[in-house]
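[audit] Reproducing an earlier prediction to check determinism. Same input, same settings, fresh worker. If the tokens differ from the archived copy the diff job will pick it up downstream; this log only records the rerun itself.
[audit] input (352 residues):
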Amino acid sequence: MWKFRQRFAGLAVVLLLGLVAVMTGCELQDSSEQPVVLEEKKAFPSIDAIEEGATELVRRKFRLGFSQLGSESDWRLANTQSILEAAEEAGIEVLFDNAEQSQTRQFEAVRSFVEQGVDVIAIAPVVETGWEPVLKEVQAAGIPLLIIDRKMELSDQSLYVTFIGSDFYEEGRMAGRYLLDKMRTRSGQVGIVELRGTEGASPSIDRGAGFREVIHERASLTILASEAADFTQERGNEVMATFLQTYGNDIDVLYAHNDDMALGAIEAVEAFGLEPGKDIIILSVDGTRQAFEMMVAGKINAVVECNPMLGPNVMQAVMELMEGRTLPKRIITPERIYTEVTAEREVANRKY
């Protein structure tokens, strides 16, 4: 159970015999596990704090400590920009640290946020496991914690307030359903290779599991190889080149866990003398402008959207917490799948 205080610096009420400092408290109750799917972003509430009975208006800027896992992709850069821009709009000060894929650095950043007495901490974790010790320090300090984008594997659910982000498992299922439909008239075996993201990261785990659950319906769909490629274009190219050297023309489908890896894989497919999107069906996840352009060019067949623009939702959560309101345990952003058929009319709408 989270307990923290809303402090209103400089607010005082002169009573009959002297000056009494006023302080209010609030308590965040455990909320339902039922996720809330956001359909629209509410306007930011005011950060003007007016203590009852006071005649002076005081504005205090809340402070958010944000540990970003890295800058490995266009998606991640857009996610960081969304957080920082939304914070500026909401009048929230952000203490930002880019961990560059190091969980140890994230631990250090979180402890620094605690020492500096921030109002709220948000973490986009590099990997799922190993978080409980440092989160217990955050809880002991009375600072509410938001998990954004990627999940953590925790035995104690009271260590965080809410998760804000995507349903990675459903993203994998969407990719799988598309492939079942795409291959509905295909006879014989279908060879699939998979480019996973960072080993141990929740998108890699869940996107793979959701995909497998769906394609399991057809025994002819076979995963020939699956390897981590760190969500980067360079590694996507390297790993796909290895797949092609090993399996060659037996590869019918590439399932990449993000657009950057898919873009790197396309280069490897073309260097091997095959035509991406035709000789090899390519499925990806994210929905970046580059991926849409590749769909328009016929080199990617489908992209499952993973929305990075979480900033307004995160700032909304911060403001709700500072007003003592209860948040659901999961806040899921709405997403869909795009195909080469719809890409041309949607490409101009991509903001990242």
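[audit] rerun output stored. Observation attached for the diff report: Confidence is low (pLDDT under 50) at residues 1-33, 38-59.
[audit] end
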